[in-house]
Amino acid sequence: MSAPRLSVDRERCIGAGMCAMTAPDVFDQDPDDGLVLLLHAEPPAAHRAATRMAVGVCPSGAITLHEPEPDGAWYSSRKS
Fold first, then answer.
1. DSSP secondary structure, 17-59, as one string
2. Beta carbons of 26 and 48 less than 8 angstroms apart
3. Taking the model in full, what pTM does it have?
4. Do 6 and 38 contact (CB within 8 A), yes or no?
5. What is the chain's pLDDT, residue by residue, as a tens digit (80 residues)?
6. Reduced to 3 states, what is the DSSP secondary structure of residue 80?
7. Rounded to whole angstroms, how far apart are CA atoms 17 and 2?
């Protein structure tokens, strides 16, 4: 089975920094504009719980988590 994958939408990001505070091993903030920087598109297993939490606390919904389903399809989740 494939590992979950992340994508970020820097156009949608408002620079709140919740992702970097919640999962600092997966996300950071750009020092120039404060927007999200994705450090690991496929977060290591040890950081997946924090990654899922970061998706949920992002106030702008700029982070999408793409998770593989057992049948090989992909499910994407993001806070609306």
1. -HHHHH-TTTEEE-TTT--EEES-SS--GGGHHHHHHHHHH-T
2. no
3. 0.86
4. yes
5. 578 899 999 999 999 999 999 999 999 999 999 999 999 999 999 999 999 999 999 999 999 999 877 776 766 766 65
6. coil
7. 28
